[in-house]
Amino acid sequence: MQITSEFLHQELKRFFGFSSFKGQQAEIIQNLLEGKDAFVLMPTGGGKSLCYQLPALLMEGTAIIISPLIALMKNQVDAIRGFVIERDGVANFLNSSLNKSQLMEVRSDLLSGKTKLLYVAPESLTKEENIALLRQVKISFYAVDEAHCISEWGHDFRPEYRKIKPIVNEIGNAPIIALTATATPKVQSDIQKNLGMSDARVFKSSFNRKNLYYEVRPKVNIDKEIIKFIKNNDGKSGIIYCLSRKKVEEIAELLNVNGIKALPYHAGLDGSTRASNQDKFLMEEVDVIVATIAFGMGIDKPDVRFVIHYDMPKSLEGYYQETGRSGRDGGEGQCIAFYSYKDMQKLEKFMQGKPIAEQEVGRQLLNETIAYAESSTCRRIVLLNYFGENYSTPECGNCDNCLFPKKQFDGKEEVTVVLELIAGLKEKFKADHIVNIIAGVNNSLIKSYNHHNHELFGIGISKGPKFWMAIIRQCLLHKLLEKEIEKYGLITVTDKGRAFMDNPQTIMLTEDREFAHDDDGTDVVTPGVKHAGAGDATLMAMLKDLRHSISKKINLPPFVIFNDTSLEDMSIHYPVTIDELKNCQGVGEGKAKRYGKEFLDLISKYVDENEIQRPSDLVIKSVANKSLNKVYIITSIDRKLALEDIAESKGMEMDELLTEIEAIVNSGTKLNIDYYIRQTVDDDKVDDIYEYFKTEADTDSLKEAANELGRGYTEEEIRLVRIKFMSEMGN
Q1: Distance separating alpha carbons of residues 127 and 134, to the nearest angstrom
Q2: Closest CA to 727 of 646, 688, 672
Q3: How much is the pLDDT for 521?
Q4: Which of the chain's ends, N or C, has fewer CB atoms near its CB within 10 Å?
């Protein structure tokens, strides 16, 4: 079907009101009108849907649009009907949400030729009665939306998507257009192969979204950080992504308690609630949607101004697609991700029990996400490189790493070591194995290959594994190395890398950002790294001096008075009243009243002398559930219930319960767990641990305590006695 450019522009204006096409839209549409297959890789906001909507309205027959999300089909159908004058029946959807009479109406519209676009979920496409119905209809073309769902290497693999081609063959052949916003070269190849469209014309737009600002923050005081961020962006629309439904509900409730209009969205809600919540967000009745990744595919809200990742996603493709829902109108789009390595380890644990090949794929995708989060290289360079796109600008000026760069160093020697080792081992190993050899990590895998006797084993031991992993990642970015994705991540040396080995030259690299972990597994801020939420360093030093002088006076270790986290919170929020102090992390009413006055006097004087404007959002109200937990734990301990029973009744792990108890004690409430300690810890051990914290400890660090006390003491024993000590001496 040959159509002139002039006619296409005329129809674009008539149906959609646009005067011109975006990017490659016109070429893609012309290709489809000519009856040819197309693979379209276009970032979110690039106008993918128009690439099949306009040709569907112009061509004879019905276009079958295969889409993964039932919840969004109605919105898409309503949108099309809004563009067309004879709108009844021009677009329909076929899925499990339809009742009998609605289904009859859709059948009638289809068979009469009224319907130009039929949205179908892949599960509905497999039903025999639907196949029989569609065989009676003239199909203009098939559009496979969110085509990355086909590939097991994609971020949202769906087995039903791999059945599309056989069903298309059964219904009747017609051109296929596959569309996605995210696909690595491997995923693209997988999609085309599965749909039998290897010869399709490929339309690839740049992945670069210049208007998006990318930042990764350590997962510290995250609830306060998010509330502060949203209040600083008052009235703007945003999405917060969490990995679990439970966390979605918790954060939505937390935001509402703190005066932010928010609603949850996840697959556990019934269809009508999900649709209602989405509509309220689209209609700006609420500012924020807190969601799992189920939310956002195909959503047409151009003015989402921020996307926050409470949890890092399982892959960079998922991250890119979710951040892409921000700033689709070309305006401001802030993409803030909170990162904790501990979270990534949890995700890896969840993979256990899956087939080995699936675990390998999942692990590699996670490693790419970790690399992105911890890298000091321009975020854009890392993202675009992941999708096979070269970004030649040395820095984008619109990400945290470019705005707050780390020091560079000449990595000639380090790069040479890495390249020579990989080449010498015949390119048969993955990055972590190479790193372990250089850093001298003598694990069972290293021994099994006898690599602990390799001449380069331990050559970089002083710098540690993380440093060497950063070198490998930057070698990949500089195209000196290549990762063989199909071979589960084996690292190979490129021609450029071999040229470097023959003639090593100056190559400027950066060390990765440090996302350190404190001894309880909570991320802590590394000094010297610029990031949002860091406290006032001068005030922090003064608070520590005051704590030290008080500890000398009352003969107690400094951490018993207030721990570092509490002081850091004070240095961020500048509390000047007891009520404000109580809202700092780890400070309850007891501690605030007992030790607070001198700290408040110091802060108040500091604020006045330095004319500091204090944050207005200091008081972050907590959600009722947490306080109910606290009351239950305190009363259960008063009744001398076994801690295992308390944990089980609240659906907690023992580790989680101890963390809750520690928070209660650290905030100034006295708890007596002697009854439990007597049953579980030897008296001699109790005395040793207690004496250590009383006379030897400089901090409340579990790690330092374990090192000092030696191997005969478990972490749980140390934690229990530390709770006893903090409760008796600090409260």
Answers
A1: 11
A2: 672
A3: 35
A4: N
Distances (CA, A) of 312 to 27, 337, 342, 367: 36, 7, 11, 12
Using alpha carbons, list the distances in angstroms from residue 451 to 113, 422, 571. Answer: 69, 12, 49
- Strand, helix or coil at 483? strand
Asked if residue 25 lies in contact with residue 51, where contact means CB atoms within 8 angstroms, the answer is: yes
Q: Is the pLDDT of residue 632 over 70?
A: yes
Q: Structure pTM?
A: 0.57
Pick the CATH number of 407-512 from 2.20.70.10, 3.40.190.10, 1.10.10.10, 3.40.50.300: 1.10.10.10
**Higher-confidence position of 603 and 296:** 603
DSSP H helices, 46-98, are 50-58, 70-83
The CATH class of 624-730 is mainly alpha
Q: Is 578 a residue whose pLDDT tops 50?
A: yes
DSSP 492: E
> Phi and psi (nearest 5°) for 211?
-80, -10
Question: Could you please report the per-residue DSSP string of 399-463?
Answer: BHHHHSPPPEEE-HHHHHHHHHHHHHTTT-SBHHHHHHHHTT---HHHHHTTGGGSTTTTTTTTT
Question: Which residues are registered as beta bridge partners of 409?
Answer: 509
Please, are residues 66 and 145 in contact by the beta-carbon 8 Å criterion?
yes
Which sequence spans correspond to the domains of the chain?
A: 5-204, 212-402, 407-512, 535-609, 624-730
Contact 239, 295 (CB under 8 A): yes
Virtual torsion, Cα 187, 482, 393, 513, nearest 10 deg: 100
Which of helix, strand or coil describes residue 337? strand
Q: Let me know if the fold of 212-402 is the same as that of 535-609.
A: no
pLDDT attached to residue 731 = 64
Distance, in Å, from the CA atom of 168 to the CA atom of 529, rounded to the nearest integer, reads 54
Please, are residues 519 and 701 in contact by the beta-carbon 8 Å criterion?
yes
Could you tell me the two tokens for 584? 């700092």
* Residue-wise DSSP of 520-577: TS-EEPPTT---TT---HHHHHHHHHHHHHHHHHHT--HHHH--HHHHHHHHHH---S
Domain 5-204 -> CATH class: alpha beta
Q: φ and ψ at 81, to 5 degrees?
A: -60, -30
Architecture of the domain spanning 535-609: Orthogonal Bundle (1.10)
What span, in angstroms and rounded, lies between the C-alpha atoms of 567 and 554? 19
Q: List all residues 6 or more positions away from 73 whose beta carbon is below 8 Å from its beta carbon.
A: 67, 93, 95, 119, 121
Residue 511 DSSP code: P
Check pLDDT > 60 for residue 522.
no
Decide if pLDDT at 422 tops 50.
Answer: yes
- Environment class of residue 82 by beta-carbon count within 10 Å: exposed (0-12), middle (13-18) or buried (19+)? exposed
Residues contacting 152, CB < 8 A, separation 6+: 190, 358, 361
- CATH architecture of the domain with range 212-402: 3-Layer(aba) Sandwich (3.40)
Q: Taking a C-beta distance cutoff of 8 angstroms, is the pair 646, 667 a contact?
A: no
Q: Cα(first)–Cα(last) distance of the chain, in Å? A: 82
